[in-house]
# Entry
Amino acid sequence: MNRQEIITRINTFLEEDFEADPKGLQPEAALKEALDLDSLDYIDLVVAIEHHFGFKVKPEDFQTMHTLNDFYSYVEARA
# Structure
């Protein structure tokens, strides 16, 4: 799976499962603000990543992700 396929897949489930505004899903956008996540949403996001990409995620990994691009890169490195 290439980077663009990963981005498309992530953006699709963010729009569908997290009701994210597609216009706000820009690589430079701040992850927390773009997705309007609270602590419970992060748990749901971990579950979604595990379901869609088949690898385990540690919730503390999100501490290093500040932008959507960081998030895309994280998934790309593990997918």
Observations:
- The helical segments are 3-18, 31-35, 39-53, 68-78.
